[in-house]
From TrEMBL, chains A, B:
Gene3D superfamilies noted in UniProt: Winged helix-like DNA-binding domain superfamily/Winged helix DNA-binding domain
Taxonomic superkingdom: Bacteria
DNA-binding keyword on record: yes
Cited InterPro entries: HTH_HxlR, WH-like_DNA-bd_sf, WH_DNA-bd_sf
Membrane-spanning segments: none
Pfam families: HxlR
Protein name: DNA-binding HxlR family transcriptional regulator
Lineage: Bacteria, Pseudomonadati, Pseudomonadota, Alphaproteobacteria, Hyphomicrobiales
Domain HTH hxlR-type: 1-91
A GO MF term: DNA binding
This protein's UniProt keywords: DNA-binding, Transcription, Transcription regulation
DNA sequence: CAGCATCCTGCTTGATACTG
DNA sequence: CAGTATCAAGCAGGATGCTG
């Protein structure tokens, strides 16, 4: 469910904002490609962690946000990240 | 640090016992191979999550345990697993 | 802007056989 | 028992070009 090079970066970035457009995520997450962004967003969507809003506009306007369910998971993920931080500092 | 097909199964299994031999882990974790067990144990060792005790006996006797550091990480992992459980039940 | 399709590469994994 | 070595396969991921 969380496996994939960019799942966590996407979740954390998305968690920091109420809502975000694709292009913003693409800019904000260094190194990610359009392909992987979309692919991982789809999976996060399927798993109910992220919601997609399509504004049906021209030009296209789509926004993403972390769902309530996804938000419930974040504290645990933050704890793991914190552990990783302190753990990696030592190197 | 946790990425790898068997890292979490190993950690959780190891967490449930004070100490475990290789062969026990091999038996207890369905589907894992000798190779992956050793490989992942080495990495967990390098990351300080697991400790290896070699009893220097003949025949070989080696035991593994979760380190204090590793134990500190477990509550967060358990929380994520719990989330995954409830999440997967719905399917 | 948002997304899809394609090709291509490298890592991770699995199967198997072997050593002390 | 514990571990290593080798080979082949599968899949995730990167680069690129195209669509509405």
């Amino acid at each position: 469910m969380l496996s994939g090079r960019w799942k966590l970066p996407i979740l954390f970035r998305l968690f920091a904002e109420p809502t975000m457009r694709s292009s913003q995520l693409l800019r904000d997450i260094p190194g990610i490609s359009q392909k992987m962004l979309t692919q991982h967003l789809r999976q996060l969507e399927q798993d109910g962690l992220v919601a997609r809003q399509d504004f049906q506009e021209q030009p296209p306007h789509v926004a993403y946000e972390v769902t309530a369910s996804g938000r419930a998971l974040m504290p645990a993920l933050i704890a793991v990240r914190e552990f990783a931080r302190q753990h990696t500092e030592a190197e």
